[in-house]
Design goal:
Chain lengths: 682, 566
């Protein structure tokens, strides 16, 4: 899924050990009550255990069998609890490292500009103003109101490069537990203790703050409904059997019931939810609720800011277009010379382009008495003077004027003008180059679309997600970039309120919209969007408005967020299908075992050829139990996902989890039966 | 099996597909209150009904009001029919001078006809006066079918509307269903039946002298008019006890074919109506295709099973001749009998032209499984449609998750409340069938009515409760269901199977109508392709199979796998 997230071992020894213990605590019926299927399993386990104890004293015929069934029922419940504990354990491991960052924060408040003696950060209230200097930890989430500083945010982002935080603008938010590396800032506290970003993050990854999401509730209802049907199917069996003058053992009935109810998905449901959240966190994205993660899977429209998301953000030289009578090499040579001292990204890109095209290396300039002429807003050009040769590059009009002054006459080659106009029409920026009085040609600068984005947008289109590019550029430029990047639509000359209007319009059509933003003026749109991803570097207002925060401040992550949401839902659906499909084989194991005494012909239904009725029932129950831990890795990792039309995804998952769910238990139960009978367990 | 038999089955399916579209379009026009061919004549009639009843035709109801109207209407109908049955002895048009019907039979019959079940715990020709047959039973044949159609239309509106708080007006839907759909087609059918030799008279039984010189009464009556709606409205309650096996009730192969087609006509048409209402006809065809696939499988098994020689003859050492003709009319033979049995049980009709009890174990399991599948394979008029949509909602929920979206059907998000209501609707019939059968199997009251020993007897009981809860009304036979236990338990099963489905279905409709419609995208999988059709059919089978596997094992499967006869 992510190549950034560290592939944490699924079976970290320490996590497993503590999860194994935690699982016992989760066996409390008060905890199990939240999960109807596992609660029912536990109740049946208790009942079968009491039967076993009774038989132990009464020396019943089925004591050994009942004891084993009871054991496996308890294991079923414990495995489910274990799955949840493992998922939580992985989150807790992360929370622990976060918590270390938060410990023992001290704060120096400013009251009326005067510093106060240090107090514990836990005493801070909203709107308190604190001073933080180089080397100190920021005591609370807040907004920089004065100063600028470099801040090490690696404690929460894992990114070692320091970031700039400054008052005003869109990079004013700071997070508790991060360290100021230089300078001094004054921070206004925006979150009360206990509800800071770090607190929320810890609570979420630990699973403590986890509420059932709407889809989880719907699925639980489905599972509970199915369980009710199976209650009816099982409690009526003794009456049916009595008509055939037969008797069915209570233990067999209990086993049939547990085998039928969807224990597999019931046992893994909460682990899947926690793991989904955890995957997001591993991806350095924090969601304020599980609901937001689910919504991400449903997104129909992605709003993406052009700069930084679709394009690299800086214009790059892509071509040299020489004027009449000038070779491309000559133009490149002049352009490179004029750019050697130009440290802007545009300048560097010209040097690199010339090097790539004509293998021109940066030259030693000292002996040539070169004098660099820097760019100014008045001249709108820069360049170099070498032994009387004056080379300039800059805006077309400025260069033309420069050349005509040098030339003494108005000399504007029509070809050059046409080339410049053509570049502008395509959304690029033309940069003219002149040597003394001669206009050599044009350098084509353009907003370069990031590598691979086109493919990603094509992927999104296959998933049924429409991408809309938001840009402040004029329509012409926007259209050109949109076409090149392969986005479906664009909004040009966009103001923040246009974004909000666009989101409302899409939502009115019933679509779910995701966007990311960082500025305070993005806050309304972030709040309006169904999935609003705020950048960690953004303002507190933006972070409050969104329902996710991206710690890496990487807007392209929206795409991963969507796929994590989808994967979460797919894992639930696939395991539900698997769980229900399993029932067919379990019926074929247990029904002949129960009824062949009444009607020997029903032995024909024992198509697995299980060795004895007791062995058949025990094998079905063992399979039912051990399938839970076997599927824990799948529940935590999520089922494989790739961008494909829904029909293909469904066909694929149905064949794996539907058909597989039909077949696997036949093989599994048969194999277990071979072992069970070899060990004379039944 | 013969080529003729298969041709009959395939021709039947082709004819149903041919009828579905025009009828579906007509239904859509009727319920959208557009003008149709019949409007010139019927619109004034319709308006006069509303004026008389004080109904405002354009005042719509939310789902609760709609459901309440249905419950109230059904209650009044039940009481009225019960009253009529009890006092028929004192009323006119009673040439045979039948006495009032016993309380438990009257109650059972009233519930049965109001719930569109038409389970008959009586023999019509020796119990019911002409007035009861016409003003009581036939009237309910129309009204119960009209209620079913109304619910189906209201349910479809739930999908078709967006942000709406109402789902139609029950009184208007019911009136339109009756006078624009059921009455005109029934009149046409009745005339055809009369032309093809079916009796239609108010006279009493005809005295006849047999060849041996004995005297015999041959029952006749207003048969054709009752049979038309009996089939069209998937009621199935026969004029005669022998039902469609009786030569007066089913006069020959052509009438047999017309009757079979009329059973499926409205149920099939409603799927197309639904497709048109949601703006994509293919959605309707997809539902019909899922029904068709299940139907073809069941019919093939039944025909195959009945084309074999009778195991009883083989056991008796008689040179057996295939097919198994026990309990079948020689006029129809194995194919038409198996086909009719599959249709009448798939469609919750309950008319029979052969005795299902005499089918072989597997052949008899087909009608039973058709009913146990939830009466959604075309299903009862209206009921089959909203039944299969409930399954479609579940299918979408599971399949939707598997493609990584919160599930939506036709742009409507399927959420916890919808799933809850759908599960409630699906639970209704297992509740009635399993509990009912368990009571019958474990008590003397229940066992007393059983004719055959062993698993066959068990099947008789299970079939009876399945038939009642599925509002089918066909009898497997062999069971005497006239004692107090059966009449009341069956009545309870019928009520549960009818109203515990209708009320959640309407609640779903109300819930869906209020939701916005999300536009289709490549991210949502198409609900018109073979994948969806196959999955829907599979979900219907697996839910039924998982619910009833123990019962089927102790009934037909035990019988089929046994090395002796029961």
């Amino acid at each position: 899924m992510s190549d950034k997230a560290k592939p944490a071992s699924l079976f970290d020894g320490a996590i497993l050990r503590s999860a194994a213990l935690d699982a016992f605590g989760k066996l409390s019926p008060l905890h199990m009550w939240r999960n109807p299927v596992m609660f029912a399993t536990e109740m049946v386990a208790i009942y079968v255990t009491t039967l076993f104890v009774r038989d132990l004293f009464a020396r019943g015929a089925e004591t050994a069998f009942g004891g084993q069934i009871a054991l496996w029922l308890w294991l079923t419940v414990w495995f489910a609890a274990f799955a949840e504990a493992v998922a939580e354990g992985r989150g807790k491991a992360q929370a622990a490292s976060l918590r270390r960052a938060r410990s023992e924060l001290m704060a120096r408040r400013l009251v009326g500009g005067a510093p106060q003696p240090p107090t514990a950060a836990s005493d801070l209230k909203i709107d308190d103003v604190v001073e933080v200097v180089a080397g100190e930890l920021i005591p609370a989430d807040g907004e920089v109101v004065e100063g600028v500083a470099t801040v090490d945010e690696s404690a929460i982002t894992g990114e070692s490069a320091p970031v700039i935080r400054e008052a005003g603008g869109d990079r004013s938010a700071v997070t508790a537990g991060t360290r100021v590396l230089s300078d001094r800032i004054v921070v206004r506290v925006t979150a009360a203790q206990g509800s800071t970003f770090l607190d929320r993050m810890i609570a979420l990854v630990e699973g403590a703050a986890r509420k059932k999401t709407p889809n989880e509730i719907a699925l639980s209802v489905l599972l509970a409904g199915l369980s009710l049907i199976f209650v009816l199917a099982v409690v009526t069996v003794p009456a049916f059997a009595s008509y055939a003058q037969g008797h069915v053992s209570v233990i067999a009935l209990a086993a049939l019931f547990i085998a039928l109810i969807p224990t597999t998905i019931g046992g893994l449901l909460s682990a899947i939810g926690i793991a989904g959240m955890d995957r997001l966190v591993r991806f350095n994205v924090l969601a304020t609720s599980g609901r937001a993660v689910e919504a991400a899977g449903d997104v129909d429209v992605l709003l993406l800011d052009k700069t930084g998301t679709i394009t690299l953000g800086d214009r790059q030289a892509v071509a040299f277009i020489p004027g009449p009578g000038v070779s491309e090499r000559e133009l490149a040579d002049a352009a490179q010379l004029a750019s050697l001292s130009d440290e802007t990204p545009e300048g560097r890109s010209i040097v690199i382009l010339a090097k790539d095209r004509f293998d021109m290396r940066g030259r030693e300039m000292a002996p040539t008495h070169a004098k660099f002429v820097p760019f100014t807003a008045q001249t709108r050009m820069s360049g170099v003077d070498i032994d009387g040769t004056r080379i300039r590059k800059g805006a077309v009009e400025s260069i033309l004027q420069f050349a005509s002054v040098q030339n003494g006459a108005s000399h504007a080659p029509a070809d050059v003008r046409r080339a410049a106009e053509a570049i502008a029409r395509e959304g690029g920026t033309p940069l003219a180059v002149a040597r003394n009085g001669q206009v050599l040609g044009i350098v084509h600068l353009k907003d370069v679309v990031k590598g691979g984005v086109k493919e990603r947008f094509a992927e999104l289109r296959r998933m049924g997600i429409r991408t809309v590019m938001i840009t402040g550029d004029n329509a012409l430029t926007a259209a050109a970039i949109a076409a090149e990047a392969g986005v479906d639509d664009f909004l040009s000359e966009a103001k923040p309120e246009d974004k909000l209007a666009l989101i409302r319009k899409e939502q009115a059509e019933g679509k779910l919209v995701a966007m990311c933003g960082d500025g305070t003026n993005d806050a309304p749109a972030l709040a309006q969007a169904d999935v609003g991803v705020a950048m960690q570097t953004g303002t507190p207002a933006a972070r409050e408005a969104g329902n996710m925060v991206d710690l890496d401040s990487d807007p392209t992550k929206l795409i991963e967020i969507v796929s994590i949401g989808k994967q979460l839902l797919m894992t639930r659906g696939s395991l539900t299908t698997f769980s229900i499909a399993n029932d067919v084989a379990k019926y074929f194991a247990i029904i002949p075992a129960m009824f062949a005494v009444l009607y020997p012909g029903l032995g024909l239904l024992n198509i697995m050829g299980l060795s004895s009725p007791q062995s058949a029932i025990l094998s079905a129950i063992i399979f039912n139990a051990i399938i839970i831990p076997l599927l824990i890795p799948l529940a935590l990792k999520g089922v494989a996902w790739r961008a494909a039309p829904a029909g293909q995804l469904l066909a694929r998952n149905l064949s794996i989890y539907g058909l597989g769910g039909l077949i696997a238990p036949f093989l599994g139960i048969k194999a277990i039966d071979v072992i069970v009978s070899a060990l004379h367990l039944a | 099996m013969t080529l003729d038999g298969w041709i009959l089955i395939l021709v039947f399916i082709a004819l149903v597909a041919a009828i579905a579209r025009p009828l579906g379009l007509y239904l859509e026009a009727v319920f959208a209150a557009r003008r149709t061919l019949l409007s010139a004549v019927l619109a004034p009639v319709e308006d006069s009904f509303y004026r008389l009843a004080g109904v405002k035709a354009d005042a719509e109801q939310d789902w609760k009001e709609y459901a309440l109207a249905i419950l109230a209407f059904s209650l009044v109908c039940t009481l009225a029919l019960y009253g009529l049955l009890r006092v028929q002895g004192a009323l006119p048009l009673n040439p045979q001078a039948f006495a009032g019907v016993a309380p438990n039979i009257a109650m059972n019959t009233a519930v049965s006809f109001v719930t569109n079940t038409n389970w008959q715990a009586y023999a019509g020709e020796s119990t019911m006066s002409h007035l009861t047959q016409m003003a009581g039973l036939t009237v309910q044949n129309f009204l119960s079918a009209a209620v079913g159609i109304a619910v189906a239309i209201a349910f479809a509106r739930g999908f078709a509307r967006r942000g709406a708080s109402t789902i139609g007006n029950f009184w208007v839907d019911m009136t339109r269903a009756t006078i624009y759909v059921l009455l005109p087609i029934s009149i046409l059918l009745a005339l055809i039946f009369i032309a093809l030799g079916m009796p239609q008279t108010l006279a009493g039984a005809l005295p006849a002298t047999t060849l041996e010189g004995a005297s015999q009464d041959i029952a006749v009556g207003p048969v054709a008019s009752q049979i038309a709606i009996k089939m069209l409205g998937t009621n199935g309650g026969g004029f005669f006890n022998a039902n469609a096996a009786h030569p007066f009730e089913n006069t020959g192969p052509i009438v047999n074919l017309i009757q079979m087609l009329s059973i499926f006509a409205i149920g099939a048409g409603l799927t197309i109506t639904f497709g048109r209402m949601v703006g994509d006809e293919r959605q309707g065809w997809a539902l019909l295709a899922a029904m068709g696939a299940l139907f073809l499988i069941g019919t093939s098994v039944a025909y195959w099973a009945e084309a074999q020689a009778s195991p009883a003859l083989i056991a008796a050492g008689v040179e057996p001749s295939a097919p198994n003709m026990e309990g079948k009319e020689t006029r129809f033979g194995a194919a038409a009998s198996a086909l009719f049995a599959a249709i009448t049980t798939a469609a919750s009709c309950g008319a029979v032209n052969a005795m299902h009890d005499s089918f072989s174990a597997l052949g008899g399991m087909v009608p039973l499984t058709n009913i146990l599948a939830g009466e959604v394979i075309v299903g009862g008029v209206g009921a089959g449609f909203y039944g299969i949509l409930v399954f479609a909602i579940l299918t979408i929920f599971v399949a939707g998750l598997m493609v990584g979206r919160t599930p939506a059907y036709l742009g409507k998000k399927i959420e916890a409340r919808d799933v809850k209501l759908a599960m409630l609707a699906i639970l209704a019939s297992p509740l009635a069938i399993l509990i009912g059968t368990a009571l019958a199997a474990s008590t003397e009251w229940g066992r007393a009515g059983v004719q055959d020993a062993g698993p066959h007897g068990f099947t008789e009981m299970a079939y009876a409760f399945a038939s009642a809860a599925g509002n089918n009304g066909s009898a497997f036979g062999g069971l005497t269901a006239t004692n107090t236990f059966y009449t009341y338990a069956q009545a309870a099963a019928m009520l549960i199977g009818r109203f515990l489905v209708i009320v959640p279905a309407l609640a779903i409709a109300g819930n869906l109508a209020a939701k916005p419609v999300a536009p289709a995208s490549a991210g949502a999988f198409p609900t018109t392709g073979p994948l969806f059709i196959g999955l829907l059919a599979f979900i219907i089978v697996i839910v039924g199979a998982l619910t009833f596997f123990p019962a089927l094992a102790l009934g037909p499967l035990a019988e089929a796998t046994a090395d002796r006869l029961f």
